[in-house]
Amino acid sequence: MESLKGKSVLITGATGGIGAATARLLAASGAQVFITGRNEERLKALQQELQLPADRFFAADLSSASEVDKLKERFHAVFPTIDILVNAAGVGIIKPIDTLTGEEFMTTLQVNLVAPFLLMKAFLPAMKDVKKGLIINIPGVLGKVPMAGAAAYSASKYGLTGMMQSIREELKRTDIRITNLFLGGVDSAFWDHIDLRVQREKMIRAEEAAKSVWFLCQQPLSGVVSEMVLQPFNHQAI
Ligand SMILES: NC(=O)c1ccc[n+]([C@@H]2O[C@H](COP(=O)([O-])OP(=O)(O)OC[C@H]3O[C@@H](n4cnc5c(N)ncnc54)[C@H](OP(=O)(O)O)[C@@H]3O)[C@@H](O)[C@H]2O)c1
């Protein structure tokens, strides 16, 4: 296993269920984490809980190119290099096409697809300079298998899957590793506004989802886990 000790790690979506649990786990394993999300209060609370230095968090809307640029500046003011990028930011607008609005469709693409693109433009160059790094995105199983009523979400997550697979091909002559993590239902605030009959108590817990990220971050450098699938047995209400 690779050690996480001292590794510089950027975690987006750190104010969310999976991102916060990941930050806790990686920090506990000795990683030097830098956290971002939109909600400054929750970010600050996590920074204090993890006893991170005051310059280890920055609130940013990742769908804005200028805010991602500022995030990059803040991150590199602390760490010259980036060992690991965990992108756990995302929105879950899951609605049938009849009720899905154009605005919701565009928001979904902005956060789930354009933001990861902006993160690549901002942070990949530093990895390319040293020809190594690890990038983990969380397309979820709906970025692999479509589900009725998830046109916007699946469009964004299939796009994310394809974009990262293409970038992986571009990076084949480097040791930059890209992993697409396909998670099934994880019990988090993600589900608070989704109008589907699901059994949240049967979902994967955010702490367990974070363990899959933690596992990926410690894989030997000689290989790459291109994808990982982790699903609950069944959380569809009968
Ligand atoms: N939960 C699941 O069942 C599940 C399954 C498969 C894949 N996933 C994926 O896993 C990732 C994390 O999900 P989660 O369950 O942890 O959801 P969550 O608890 O709702 O957290 C979502 C995170 O994304 C951040 N975010 C949303 N819009 C943003 C924006 N414009 N700019 C910057 N940050 C933004 C939120 O920040 P603020 O709260 O500060 O706004 C929050 O930190 C998402 O990509 C999701 O699609 C989730």
The ordered H/E elements are EHEHEHEHEHEEEHE
Helix/strand/pairing class, anyone?
alpha/beta
The average pLDDT value, as a whole number, equals 96
CATH A-level architecture: 3-Layer(aba) Sandwich
Q: Can you tell me the CATH class?
A: Alpha Beta
Strand order of the largest sheet: 3-2-1-4-5-6-9
Q: Compute the number of helices.
A: 6
From the alpha-carbon coordinates, what is the Rg to the nearest angstrom?
Answer: 17 Å
Unreliable spans are none
Distance between the termini: 41 Å
What is the CATH superfamily classification? NAD(P)-binding Rossmann-like Domain
Task: Characterise the protein shown here.
By secondary structure, the protein is of the alpha/beta class. 41% of the residues lie in helices and 17% in strands. It has helices spanning 17-28, 40-49, 65-78, 102-130, 151-170, 206-217, and strands at residues 8-12, 32-37, 57-59, 84-87, 132-137, 175-183, 186-187, 204-205, 227-230. The longest helix has 29 residues, at 102-130. Bound molecules: NADP nicotinamide-adenine-dinucleotide phosphate. The site of NADP nicotinamide-adenine-dinucleotide phosphate (NAP) has 26 residues, from helix 1.
Task: Summarize this entry quickly.
The chain is an alpha/beta fold and 238 residues long.
Q: Main traits of this protein?
A:
6 helices, binds NADP nicotinamide-adenine-dinucleotide phosphate, seven-stranded parallel β-sheet, 17% strand, Rossmann fold, alpha/beta, 238 residues, globular, single chain, two-stranded parallel ribbon
